Structure to design on (276 residues):
DNA sequence: ACCTCCCTGGCC
DNA sequence: GGCCAGGGAGGT
């Protein structure tokens, strides 16, 4: 299987095209995309005319800093993807937000299910947004196993949904939570507080390894192609998934059929033999 | 610390 | 037609 070049969406792909550009237009076709913006008109008002500085990320929230202390936040929700286009390029269906730059580059947010959103926040808005409650970033600020152990200590909920709680650790979604638990050899149903220190050490390494591998292969584009890289390519990590979406298929390690169970309303996959 | 709901498209 | 889907907020 051809190996994709290393891709890291927010830094290597989006940032060079946005850095130092001045926003010249901001158009939102689906008002719902602005539901996290206290006053909808603020979005365009706060973006247009401002120069883009740092482009970063905390968990699943894309954060673009603009001059004048404005933070432009983008979240892809479940079906959102960013596309970088040139003004005048044909629009694909469900292009809900277009932010135009003086360079001619357009940031487009395509999101059929509209669970994603955009907002332009002042420092005060940020304080009251969900970003303020995010835990450490799973990729850039992964806590030590000691701290992770402490965070899980008083949680009776199963470890799987606990990994999805963005206030504990920011960035893991349903696929990567299942994959990390698979790598760590831990059953998703285990109460978070029951994890022994060596298991937390394994889990920490597994989270790191899973995210690194996901990025290396360009992310997980499922059959619906809801997620694509900003340049339109499909991520190839789906071919490498150990458990997610593989119910009934043999475990890549021991051959036991992968099981699926709904845990806290989320589809959960694991190998009953390798994970305990 | 849970469940429900928000949306639309695709598949069975 | 019904069910499912990578996420998160809001209400209880």
């Amino acid at each position: 299987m051809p190996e994709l070049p290393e891709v890291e969406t927010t830094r290597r792909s989006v940032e060079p095209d946005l850095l130092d550009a001045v926003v010249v237009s901001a158009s939102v076709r689906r008002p719902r995309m602005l539901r996290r913006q206290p006053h909808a008109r603020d979005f365009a008002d706060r973006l247009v005319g401002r120069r883009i500085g740092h482009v970063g990320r905390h968990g699943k929230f894309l954060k673009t800093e603009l001059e004048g202390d404005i933070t432009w936040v983008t979240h892809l929700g479940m079906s959102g993807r960013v596309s970088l286009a040139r003004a005048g390029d044909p629009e694909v269906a469900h292009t809900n937000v277009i932010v135009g730059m003086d360079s001619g580059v357009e940031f487009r947010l395509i999101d059929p299910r509209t669970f994603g959103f955009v907002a332009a926040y002042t420092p005060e808005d940020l304080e009251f947004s969900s970003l303020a409650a995010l835990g450490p970033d799973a990729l850039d600020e992964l806590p030590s196993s000691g701290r992770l152990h402490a965070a899980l200590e008083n949680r009776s909920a199963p470890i799987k949904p606990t990994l999805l709680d963005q206030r504990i650790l920011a960035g893991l979604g349903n696929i990567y939570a299942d994959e990390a638990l698979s790598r760590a050899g831990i059953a998703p149903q285990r109460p978070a507080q029951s994890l022994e220190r060596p298991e937390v050490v394994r889990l920490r390494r597994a989270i790191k390894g899973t995210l690194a591998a996901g990025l290396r292969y360009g992310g997980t584009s499922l059959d619906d192609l809801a997620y694509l890289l900003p340049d339109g390519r499909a991520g190839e990590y789906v071919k490498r998934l150990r458990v997610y979406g593989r119910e009934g298929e043999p475990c890549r390690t021991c051959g036991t059929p992968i099981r699926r169970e709904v845990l806290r309303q989320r589809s959960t996959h694991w190998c009953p033999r390798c994970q305990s």
In short: Residues 1-12 of chain A have pLDDT under 50 and may be disordered.
